[in-house]
Amino acid sequence: MKPSVKSWTALACLALAGMPIVSGPAAAQTLQEVEARQQAVVEAWEKTPLTARRAVFVTAPATIYGAFQERPSNTFKSGEPLYSYVEPVGYAWKSLGNGEYAFGLTVDFTIKRPNGQVLGGQEKFLNYAQTSRYRNQEVMVNLTLTISGAPPGDYIVTYTMRDANSAKTATIEQPFKIVN
Prior knowledge:
The chain is α+β, with helices and mostly antiparallel strands. It is 16% helix and 43% strand.
């Protein structure tokens, strides 16, 4: 099949503009190039403080990373569960020496009023630990609280994440409101 006159004209214009003309398939990236770029991400990750890429109230606990439905508001009825979806970033991996890595978090929480008055909480509310042959980076944590008997009003839940393999910590605050 011969190119049309319009096609030849477009090629000629590109050539005159100094643009290279690619006549075959683009060079494919090799697996080694992907691995090198992944190693660069690992090195950047290790220098990153523990933080959360995302921490949102959701309609139900997520089943896998990224599969969540963000809640349209932070208003809850008394006794209704507060589901939070959190994507931690910057945690450390510990080599187990057998080709596997361990990683994890401990999460504490406190409930307080906007004026800072602490109403309650729990240390080691969640202990999350995993072992993998990879330095997993797509990790999510579901956190569920049910606040019963609290009067209507404004509150803040503060989650403190502590890395299992380093001294890194991070704090996440989620304001919410309880209504009757």
